[in-house]
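User: We ran a pulldown and think these components assemble together. Before we commit to crystallization trials, I'd like a predicted model of the whole complex to look at. Sequences follow.
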Amino acid sequence: MTIRLANIRAGYENFALQNINLHIETGSFTCLIGPNGCGKSTLLKTIGRILKAQSGQIEVAGLDILASSSKEVARKIAFLPQNPAVPAAITVEQLVGYGRAPYQGLFGFASQEDREKVAEAITQTGLEALKDRRLSELSGGQRQRAFIAMALAQDTPYIMLDEPTSFLDLKYQYETLELLAKLHAKGRTCIVVLHDIAQAARYASDLVVMKEGQIFAKGKPEEVISPQMLTAVYGIRACVYADPVSNSPVVSPLPQLAVDGTRSNTSAPKAGLLAAE
Amino acid sequence: MSALISSSLQQRSVIYLILLSALVLSCIWGLKIGAIAISPQVLANTLFNLDGPQQKYILLTSRAPRIVLALLTGGALAIAGSLIQAVIRNPLASPKVVGINSGAAFATCLMIALFPTMTLTNIPVVATLGGALAATIVLLGAHWRGLSPVRLALVGVAVGMLFDSGVDFYLVANTSPEKAAPMMWLTGSLWSRTWSHVEAVWLPIVLLSGLAFSLSYQLDILRLGDETAIGLGQRPALMRFIALLTATVLASISVGVVGVLGFVGLMAPHMATRLVGGQTRHMLPCAMLVGMLLVVLADCVGRALAPPIEVSAGVLTALFGAPFFIVLMLKSDRETTG
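Assistant: Here's a predicted model for the assembly, 615 residues in total across the polymer chains.
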């Protein structure tokens, strides 16, 4: 039960992922990080088959994703886009109910099991009191929880989120991440694109660092986040130290005078930079 | 605002009951009024086959078909508008945005210019072809390099303007009475429609409406956006194509048979969403009833204002629709953001 990508080529006209090979363990909390335009969202969408890979193989829990029907994929992977459209005047419970679509026919008649899964998802996300409220009446954080509940109702081993924190206030960012950590602890494999390295380092069990359509590094946060990586991938000089609360790596940028452009990974990290631990 | 919002089963039942009663009452009113006023008693006698030939003729040959046609086209426009709003995900979306009205109007003018001897009963067919042509151009343009709802709306407005300018040119260039005949039709009138018009359109409207109802749940998924829809196992491109095709034919047929009834396809879905919530399986039947009510009422009021002169139903739907829509938009700022 893992996700395995072999020789994946995917992407849009002017941007492509080249020859991606990746292995994501079941039960992990994997974060994809990297600068804007590095392909992390494209990679996530390719695994979830929101975007169809041009060549290569993707296997998710034994299922050949590229040869399966959309509904079969939707029973393995729940995917939440970065900024989902919010339909006018629907309630939280109705939204969560759509998570059952992969198990339903054309007309969307809900079975007893569908209703139970929806109720369970609402309970797990703490939305009981809000289930009859309209999405438009909710705060950004509550709405994000409602969408996560929809993904939970999908009842899939894998749950993928594309930058789930990017439009939220700080409080709701952490509320969302804590919720994901809780779901991860209960056995869901979470694969999340995050913009914020500190958040990724704190919540992820595994990090995948991307640069220009390639996987630059993969491993535990404390293995991956180093001054060298930050210079090579993000083009910044920074020191890395351990977070006093979680002991996860935290990045602190240094004055950037010495950095010459983007490809200075060989010369920049020198004396004065501390590594983690 | 929130007093209008209801989602429980009982509340929805009450709303449906009120709408249905209003619809029945306005249909009866529609049979009663016109250039020849018919009293309720005579109306009843005639309906139950007890009275003289003149009233019977007026009621069964003139007024009944136009009411049936008002119900059919009102429902069709409302369903078309609901489908298009679900696809474009924009509160301002309507059949007009996809260029249907303009294409249908232009095709009619072109037909009258090229074949002046053709009878007016050919208008529905030609208008449907024109509407479908405009919608096809818009959809092809919007699908170029992958469909985006925004490009769909922009291309629709541009193509609509192009066809509108063709109509304007025709109207400026032809001022003789017989060539100006489409003017009356363009304003959306139910005047002098007969059972033959009903016969021509009822079956496709009923079938396509049935198709639209059967797609309710899929439309809800589509409204979540393409990526979410794919993630839920849907094929949004296919669903969008089916929904838009259905909407195009429904709206084109209505425009073809009664002309441009502005704002019905825009207002009905909004009012229905306000009344019973946004889930399509609840909203779509309600929108259909509201659309029917709007057109029947517009036709009745148009006849009641100054008999025997008739004000076109399309003039009235636009007259009441425009300010109503502005109010709706101002109130719905919270619904449409985010």
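Chain A touches chain B through 41 residues (CB under 8 Å). That may be worth checking against your pulldown data before setting up trials.

User: Thanks, that helps.
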